[in-house]
Amino acid sequence: MFLTIIIPTYNEELSIKTTIQHLQKVLHNKAYEIIISDAGSTDATVAVAAGLGAKALLSPVKGRAGQMNFGVKNATGDVYFFVHADSLPNPKFFDAVEKALLDGFNCGSFRTQFDSQSFLLKINAFFTRFNYLFFRGGDQGIFVTKALWEKIGSYKEEMFIMEDYDYIARLWNAGNFKLIPMATLISARKYEQNSWLTVQLANLKIVRMYKKGASQIDMVTKYKELLTYRKNAF
User: Fold this and answer.
1) Cα distances (Å, whole numbers) of residue 200 to 74, 165, 194
2) pLDDT-based confidence at 157, cuts 50/70/90?
3) Taking the chain, what is the end-to-end CA distance rounded to the nearest angstrom?
4) Helix (H) / strand (E) containing 137
5) What residues have CB less than 8 Å from 125, skipping those under 6 apart?
6) Cα(129)–Cα(7) distance, rounded to whole angstroms?
7) In terms of C-beta distances under 8 Å and separation of at least 24 residues, what long-range contacts does 42-49 make, across chains too?
8) Is the pLDDT of residue 134 over 90?
9) Full-prediction pTM beyond 0.85?
10) Paired strand residues for 32
11) What's the pLDDT at 221?
């Protein structure tokens, strides 16, 4: 297995160094590449990533869906692993993905562990051990074989929110999905900038809007109204 790790970024200077160095450490002697698909950061994200040896590219499309698709277009691996810039995959994730492939799975993801001691976030994380679509998210890390990617298609670039949910749902329906019983360490920064309840209510609102067929513009606008974002995020 040759693994292409694709990380969409925008102004992630404070996170990307930790993420890349973590990956390089746990993947020592493994067959892999790291692609940073950037949306035109105004900070040093691209320079930091390139300086660490990652393939740092400027995506012609701004938005995680388009950036991840651009990463795939520049990938050489036979398995793609999509990771958020502030998420740290389990140190044994490579071997776990390889074993899943040998066992006949062609896509999947991981559980959640937050970098916080918040009791409420521990409850959130607990439920990600259950293999239901509702508990899956892009920040947990998503892997898919090149063959399955070519079969079901790419991320929908017209989506600026819920793009991970849409893609995982397609994996769920067309692939043999494996929930690996290991946790990805996920940043709690969204919960630290907003209350736990505020984030939960915002997520619930957006899911309901999505289910009712709301437009991407309406969902993005509403999400930004409900939550405080980190500085310079888009």
Assistant:
1) 36, 16, 10
2) very high
3) 34
4) none
5) 111, 112, 113, 114, 183
6) 24
7) 42/11, 42/232, 43/11, 43/12, 43/13, 43/232, 44/13, 45/9, 45/10, 45/11, 45/12, 45/13, 45/16, 46/9, 48/13, 48/16, 48/17, 48/20, 49/9, 49/16, 49/20
8) no
9) yes
10) 3
11) 92
212 within 8 A of 142, measured Cβ to Cβ:
no
Structure tokens that stand for 112 in this block: 């959640």
Strands of the chain, DSSP E: 3-9, 32-38, 55-58, 79-82, 87-88, 107-114, 142-145, 177-186
Residue 11 zone, left/alpha/beta (φ > 0; ψ -120 to 50; rest)? left
Average pLDDT over residues 45-58: 97
Which residue is listed with tokens 């309406």? 218
Q: What is the structure's pLDDT at 230?
A: 60
Tokens standing for 50?
Answer: 């390139």
DSSP-assigned beta bridge partners for residue 33? 4
Report how far residue 118's alpha carbon sits from residue 155's, in angstroms, rounded to the nearest whole number: 33
